[in-house]
Write a structure and sequence with these properties.
Elements (H helix, E strand, L loop, with lengths): L4 H20 L7 E5 L5 E9 L4 E8 L2 E6 L3 E6 L2 E2 L5 E2 L11 E6 L3 H4 L1 E10 L2 E11 L4 E12 L9 E3 L5 E4 L18 E5 L16 E4 L4 E6 L6 E5 L12 E6 L24 E3 L5 E6 L12 E5 L4 E8 L2 E11 L7 E6 L5 E5 L14 E8 L4
Antiparallel strand pairs: 1-2, 2-26, 3-4, 4-5, 5-6, 5-7, 8-9, 9-10, 10-11, 12-13, 13-14, 14-15, 16-17, 17-18, 18-19, 20-21, 21-22, 22-23, 24-25, 25-26
Length: 386
């Protein structure tokens, strides 16, 4: 075949386009990513399940069954490591876009007998976007017995919360964002920018710090990680700092959250202090966009027992926080793990097998989707405990 100038130009253009595409596309993640901690212990991450769309929250209903919320409004089932094609539920009233959608999920303390589970999601109301928490019964192949626990929580396309957890006291805790209106975080009449505390049926516990109110703590911008230290029983949260439009970028936080306390937003941020507000345990500038969090208690991470882990979205990392064993209000050490290996990370949970499970968030409009994204990673220490 004769190569004409025109054919040559077309071939070069196509080759250039392929080259640019290859350079722009993120690399396929390794079959087994490895990270070595400062203490010399090695962690290995493998893909547990793939093909998800913006997974937000992970829970285990049994050793062989995992539930995952997808932000567009689906609850997915993973059984024995395989993603079931048919969702457990598709919520028709979910408003999804930006950072809002189907978000937090948790199981009732008596799930084994009641099969009760809780979901938090954004919806459109006559007053604009709001969050609601709803209780369902897990029927195995569907959700039933829908009951609204709380609704009308201020929300927006950004800063919508909403992590759910039951505490050691058997109460339901809900993190809420400031809905991009930072003034409401200091307004005790607003549910935005708070941690809420409720009974499982949605009623207000009589020992809440503000009588007749579900508000447990205030002055939060947008907390998305929540768990309790298994040693001290204190609540730890990860929280997003300002993004530029509402304050200088950075100022992400880890907080120890206690009843009735003011965590400062927007009166203070970054490393500022002010009487009557609680300074963060940790502060991150530049921003790493912290999301899901948990304490590691699994047998497959023996060198990391009772360490606090949280995920980074913008930071594309898993952060390990080791607390001072003599005073667990103080940090002994922190380190970044798997930085940049799997992209944006959304949630982390300890599985019943003793491994850590981490959800990516590369299809959320802010990440670069990789082959197989989004995925759930399974992380164990190697060699595992014997």
């Amino acid at each position: 075949m004769t190569v004409t100038p025109r054919r040559l130009a077309v071939s070069l253009a196509l080759a250039g386009a392929v080259s640019l595409w290859a350079c722009a596309s993120p690399p396929e993640p390794p079959a087994a990513g490895r990270a070595v901690s400062r203490n010399g212990a090695a962690l290995v991450a493998t893909t547990f399940v793939s093909g998800l769309e913006v997974p937000w929250s992970i829970v285990f209903t049994s050793p062989d069954r995992m539930l995952v919320t997808e932000r567009p409004g689906r609850v997915r089932v993973v059984e024995k490591g395989a993603l079931r094609e048919r969702p457990l539920a598709v919520l028709s009233d979910v408003e999804s876009g930006g950072e809002i959608g189907l978000m937090g999920m948790t199981l009732a303390p008596d799930y084994a007998s009641s099969r009760a589970m809780y979901l938090c999601y954004g919806y459109d109301s006559r007053d604009g976007l709001r969050d609601r928490v709803v209780r369902y019964r897990d029927a195995g192949d569907s959700l039933s017995d829908r009951s609204v626990i709380i609704e009308g929580i201020p929300a927006a396309r950004n800063h919508a919360g909403c992590r759910l957890r039951f505490g050691p006291d058997g109460m339901l805790y809900v993190t809420t964002g400031d809905a991009t209106d930072r003034r409401i975080a200091q307004d005790l009449k607003s549910l935005g920018g708070k941690t809420l505390r409720l009974r499982p049926d949605g009623s207000i516990p009589p020992d809440n710090p503000f009588p007749g109110s579900p508000v447990f703590s205030y002055g939060h911008r947008n907390s998305q990680g929540l768990d309790w230290d298994p040693v001290s029983k204190r609540m730890f949260q990860s929280e997003h700092g300002p993004s530029g439009f509402d304050g200088p970028g950075g100022g992400d936080e880890v907080n120890i959250v206690e009843a009735g306390k003011n965590y400062g937003w927007p009166l203070v941020h970054h490393k500022e202090t002010r009487a009557g507000t609680v300074p963060p345990l940790l502060e991150y500038t530049p921003a790493i966009a912290p999301s899901g969090a948990c304490f590691s208690t699994g047998a497959l991470l023996p060198s990391f027992q009772n360490d606090f882990f949280f995920t980074g979205l913008r930071g594309e990392r898993l952060v390990r926080v080791r607390l001072d064993p003599s005073d667990r209000r103080r940090v002994a050490d922190t380190e970044d793990l798997f930085r940049g290996v799997y992209g944006r990370l959304r949630d982390v949970a300890t599985g019943p097998d003793g491994a850590l499970y981490v959800a990516t968030s590369n299809r959320d409009g802010r990440g670069d989707a990789r082959p197989g994204d989004d995925r759930i990673l399974r992380i164990v220490e190697t060699p595992p405990a014997r």
